[in-house]
């Protein structure tokens, strides 16, 4: 469950989810940035887990991607370690 | 849908959800603050919609309350206007 992740994993997993959802929709970082009224550099840093995004930024991204919070804040299915 | 809220409503609705969930669990602000390793003043400001919480803060609160993202980031049922 996403909220149970160690703090240092939260931004990384969020970034990976964002990238996956963006690519599923065949959107470039630049296109998503324009849809969410953000800078491309911010999308890049969030996808790389280097930004601890604020709630309104998360909402702007979720709105642009037209998804539920549970789709963006989730632990993806991973192959077995 | 939470992500569709106007930006100025996002922090307000989030704060109201947090307060409701905290009270359902019969937790004081002080108790929740200690559970989430935060300052009481931060809980207070978030519940009042005056803080744009960061992702790791949202996760710490969600972890303390043991809930899903969709429970914390949702539009509550309101009486008809």
UniProtKB/TrEMBL annotation, chains A, B:
Residues 18-72 form the HTH cro/C1-type domain. SMART domains: HTH_XRE (SM00530). This is Helix-turn-helix transcriptional regulator. It comes from Mucilaginibacter boryungensis. CDD domains: HTH_XRE. It comes from the Bacteria. InterPro entries: Cro/C1-type_HTH (IPR001387), Lambda_DNA-bd_dom_sf (IPR010982). It holds the Pfam family HTH_3.
